[in-house]
Amino acid sequence: MVAIMSWHQMASCTAAVLLAVACARNTGDRAPAPIDSRSHWIDAAGHTNVRIPIGGTLLHYVDYGGNGLPVVFLAGMGNSAHVFDEFAPRFTDRHRVLAFTRRGFGESGQPGSGYDTKRLGDDVRDLLDSLSIPQAVLVGHSVGGDELTDVGARFPERVAGLVYLDAAYDRAGVTGRLLQQLLLGQLPPKAPRANGPDRSSVVSFREYLERIYGVPWPESEVRATRVFSNDGHYVGDVTPARINLAVARGETAMRYERLTAPILAIYAVDRTVDRDYPWIRRMVIGQGKANLQAEKAIRAQRRWERDGRSRLAAARPHARIVELRNASHYLFISNADTVEFELRKFLRGLPSA
Known about the structure:
Blueprint: H1 11-20, H2 35-42, E1 48-54, E2 57-65, E3 71-74, E4 97-101, H3 117-130, E5 136-141, H4 144-154, E6 159-165, H5 174-183, H6 202-213, H7 219-225, E7 226-228, E8 234-237, H8 241-249, E9 263-269, H9 273-276, H10 287-315, E10 320-325, H11 331-334, H12 336-348
Parallel strand pairs: 3-4, 3-5, 5-6, 6-9, 9-10
Antiparallel strand pairs: 1-2, 2-4, 7-8
């Protein structure tokens, strides 16, 4: 498996690292290429890409345009702002729309520290300050929900609304939970590594990622989070594994009870093996074993997710909670029209809209 992972699919690597620390070895920071030399092929759609100095590094955001109450998208683990390139522009008819790449990922810088939830939340606040945005609706996917909760709890005056896209879960103590899953044999199976043909071009590598994740990422996202040679071959990932681990280890308990802004939480529930591990059905050897392991992992994941959803509902009983059965974790891609409908309805109902 490649080093940049979604939250669900980084579990195996994280647990292994906790036991054998090899994966967390500091291999040194790789400075991102200057944005003026990369953006022409990362973002062929012509969106405005900017890197600004925040918190001792350069942080990247995409400005999709539009006017009205700002809506700011925050990506999940392993992704950049570009993962929203085909979804976020749907809202520019009524809102100014931006997406933010957290430190360590995509076109943002890779400082040696600052990956705890509080610092990442400060980055979001500082971005709003730099853009002279007094208040915005924050929309976070996956781990991006941690930053939503942090900003909403510490800077409530900056938040007009919070939208969690399969994101409102408390991931504090994840290392202990993953170790327990390891001991119980409940970790996800390892996905197949990209082979020679998979690595031969951007198009081929994007197809490989679709087989792994079950949804097609925007090509801009593939280019922003992976490194390709001049002749188009996949070379490696922009983000080293140690940064994914630093984010996971830096997560703090979610204080939903401190949130005062309106909340919309859209969850992907009751996901199947085919949905979360679509690559298993392509296996020629070992399919049965991988399928059994995936079923164990999904059962453990479902229990944890049910507890997480219950916690949000108990702490914020007036939050709107929408459950999409067997949607992808990337539900804004797999179920884009439904997510757009729910988000538009939520935005129309905000006092500041």
